[in-house]
Automatic annotation (TrEMBL):
InterPro entries: DUF4240. This is DUF4240 domain-containing protein. It comes from the Bacteria. Pfam families: DUF4240. Residues 2-106 form the DUF4240 domain. It comes from Yinghuangia soli.
């Protein structure tokens, strides 16, 4: 769904989204956040931590900021308070979101070859 929403936007909007997304993801690249991801996911590889940071941005500004203040705050997240670990996995480890801007760029422009250069 995010890919479709972005693809309907201008090339510049897609690139602005990617820059913002990357900044948020990079800011969450911390050992304490990785420890939270490890606990939530029952382990967390390098690739899984990339997906976790993407999922963290999807939780919205409030949860994202709470997690950066103290990742232990995520223990209060409703999905993590649920006994259904699958829900937490879907919400917090979102590989597809990492590719949304590139895919939207390709749909909008016709190719993704220039995406990273742009």
């Amino acid at each position: 769904m995010l890919t479709e929403v972005l693809a309907a936007r201008s090339r510049d909007d897609i690139l602005a989204y990617k820059r913002c997304f990357t900044e948020l993801s990079d800011a969450a690249y911390r050992w304490d956040a990785w420890a939270a991801a490890y606990l939530i996911g029952g382990g967390c590889s390098d690739d899984s931590f990339i997906d976790f940071r993407a999922g963290l941005t999807l939780q919205g500004r409030d949860w994202y900021e709470r997690a950066l203040v103290n990742p232990d705050n995520l223990a209060e997240h409703p999905a993590l308070a649920s006994p259904d670990d699958a829900e937490a996995e879907v919400l917090f480890f979102c590989e597809e979101i990492n590719c949304a801007a590139r895919r939207a760029f390709a749909r909008s422009v016709g190719t993704s070859e220039d995406f990273y250069d742009a």
